[in-house]
Request: fold
Amino acid sequence: MKDKHFIDSHKAVTGLYILLLMAYFHQWNNVTLWVYLALHGTYGLLWVFKSWLFPDKQWNQPASLVRGIMLWIGLTGYWIAPFIIAARNVQAPYWVLALAVFLNIVGTMFHFASDMQKYTELKIKPNHLITDGFWRLSRNPNYFGEFLIYSSFALLALHWLPWVVLGIIIVGFWIPHMWNKDKSISRYAEFRDYKAHTRSFFPFLF
Reply:
């Protein structure tokens, strides 16, 4: 078993989990929860297709059962938002629904398109620094896309807890990974100039 098998399985059943919440809390008429299902459920399926069509090497390492369980537990933090929506019968205003859809679409573009660009470029020309396309806007456009995606989920819950979970993931995993990645690609001669003209996370900001 590899990391991706545990991650992909969790992503794949997210839509089913939300449907079970709907059934348990009798929330079949909750528009916010239906929008959430459309966004997060679709994202989970797209992730599985991404893992199949253009996989990320970092998730291809062998994983023990204990590590796999820990990955599942960590990812389950993202399921707090739909639970809150279902349990509290959250009815988000229309402008929140629209903003969530907007963030999700833009985030999906950044996340999946930048990962595909990286996969394709490195397959055609291995061991080179990617500085064009999405990667000229940010050194981590895929994480920026994920931030927008998970922000759309947290927004729909109208609660602070999903934002705390997202913050923990960012501080505990994303930022250390971004630092380690910068150290890794600093071996390329053009890295100093690339770093000077890009932002680490948010395009044009920081």
The longest helix spans residues 94-124. The two ends are 37 Å apart (CA to CA). Residues 3-196 form one domain.
